[in-house]
Design brief:
Blueprint: H1 4-16, H2 23-29, E1 34-43, E2 49-60, E3 66-72, H3 78-94, E4 100-106, H4 115-129, E5 138-142, H5 148-162, H6 186-201, E6 210-214, H7 218-229, E7 233-239, E8 242-245, H8 252-262, E9 277-279, H9 281-285, E10 291-294, E11 313-315, H10 324-332, E12 336-338, H11 340-343, H12 346-360, H13 366-391, H14 395-414
Parallel strand pairs: 3-4, 3-5, 6-7, 6-10, 10-11, 11-12
Antiparallel strand pairs: 1-2, 2-4, 7-8, 8-9
Helix pairs in contact: 1-3, 1-14, 3-14, 4-5, 6-7, 6-12, 6-13, 12-13, 13-14
The structure holds glutamic acid (GLU).
Length: 417
């Protein structure tokens, strides 16, 4: 598998073709600032001790404390966390929130662990990395296969270590315990706002727009439901096992409730939707739809399948779903890609709101969160669209130009003797 971090650096090089930055900036942005690599010893339910490999990387902190999620996945590795921490830096700068970029990972398959074992892994992560994180240094959050409950265990462990109540240590906590309203649906809502603005620019209405969503985790399921409720025709959805497709449209909320109740993979639920059929994830990506939303994982659209993509618009809810080779093929085909660093930035934006609320000790209502999120994402969307038009580049390169410019000016202003 190609290096994800290399993909990220190739995207950065593309931006450098249109942006003059100092040699110092290139040197600083070419690698992370710091990283820890450690192993978490966990007593398993059967009494045996097992160690889990873990990472936390701070890519850059010139714009503020570093920010980014922690991923639990059997496939996570240093290269992947490096790329993800880099994209967090780009993302935070793009939406103009005062954070640098970070990411963490634990090599673990949560599907094989009991809840008590997952709790011990989560608390172990904080014990291993507490000195490297904190509300003024590095603020973690959920990512793939981590959720509000895990954030709560991590928050509790941090409070115990510090002997203080420090809710701003981590975001994505349950609302009852210092979390922010709207955080769980924020990634999808940000993507939804991008789609709404795009439809306005293209003079299109939801009723005439067909969408396929790959991934039925937090981001994908919320987005599919929001789009369906706004009148879009969601013709296909999938999880890691495969998905369902129906040209007349699906009801994602209904399918989510059945999936939860029956604890079955989506592909086996086709009989629960009229005229639906089971499809593979590969087939979903190649469907004839207006908008394709990869909301699962990285490296899904590659040079092998990019030529077969029929959607004219791709909205990246996942991080890094499109490889640089695929980007080139799609650009030639005239496909518009709303890049991950913009389309999924709603998550970290509401994380920022959560951090602010925790520090103030004053909590906002959902309406306030929604309005502020809308303002930030809509502004970032149009700014990126304007740069794209002005410079004649892709939307991804336009996003990078805006972000890198911001980080670069901070690096140059600070200097280094
Ligand atoms: N893991 C999410 C992302 O990739 C959220 C990060 C955060 O809220 O800090 O954007």
């Amino acid at each position: 598998m190609a290096s994800l971090f290399n993909n990220a650096l190739q995207q950065l090089d593309k931006a450098y073709e249109h942006l003059k930055v100092s040699k110092d900036v290139k040197e600083i942005l070419g690698s992370p600032k710091e990283a820890i690599h450690f192993w978490i010893p966990v007593r398993m339910d059967n009494g045996e001790l097992q160690t889990f490999e873990a990472f936390r990387i701070h890519y850059n902190d010139h714009l503020g404390p570093t920010k980014g999620g922690i991923r639990f996945s059997p496939a996570v590795c240093l290269d992947e966390v490096e790329a993800l921490s880099f994209w967090m830096m780009i993302k935070c700068a793009l939406v103009d929130i005062p954070f640098g970029g970070a990411k963490g990972g634990v090599v673990v398959d949560t599907k094989q662990l009991s809840q008590a074992e997952i709790e011990r892994v989560s608390r172990g992560f904080v014990r291993g990395a507490a000195g490297f994180m904190g509300p003024d240094r590095d603020i973690p959050a959920p990512d793939m296969y981590t959720n509000a409950k895990i954030m709560l265990w991590m928050s509790d462990e941090y409070n115990t270590i510090r002997g203080k109540y420090k809710p701003a240590f981590i975001t994505g906590k349950p609302v009852a315990l210092g979390g922010s309203l709207g955080r769980d649906s924020a990634t999808a809502r940000g993507g939804f706002f991008c789609i709404r603005e795009l439809m306005k620019l293209k003079n299109k209405t939801p009723e005439k727009t067909k969408v396929a969503v790959q991934g039925f985790g937090n981001a994908g399921s919320h987005l599919a439901i929001m789009l369906h409720e706004a009148g879009y025709t969601v013709t296909a959805i999938s999880d890691s096992s495969g998905g369902v497709h129906c040209e007349e449209g699906l009801d994602p909320k209904h399918l989510l409730s059945i999936k939860k109740k029956e604890k079955k993979p989506l592909k086996s639920l086709a009989s629960h939707a009229p005229n639906a059929r089971a499809i593979t994830n590969e087939q979903l990506l190649e469907l004839k739809v207006d908008i394709l939303c990869p909301a699962a994982m990285e490296n899904q659209i590659t040079k092998e399948n990019a030529g077969k993509i029929k959607a004219q618009i791709i909205v990246e809810l996942a991080n890094g779903p499109t490889t640089p080779n695929a980007d080139e093929i799609l650009e030639k085909k005239g496909v518009l890609i709303v890049p991950d660093v913009l389309a999924n930035a709603g998550g970290v934006t509401v994380s920022y709101f959560e951090w602010v609320q925790n520090r103030e000790g004053y909590y906002w209502d959902e309406d306030m969160i929604d309005r502020r999120l809308d303002k930030i994402i809509t502004k970032a969307f149009h700014r990126t669209n304007d740069v794209m038009k002005e410079k004649g580049v892709t939307m991804r390169t336009a996003a990078f130009l805006t972000s890198v410019k911001r980080v670069a000016s901070a690096i140059d202003a600070k200097g280094l003797i």
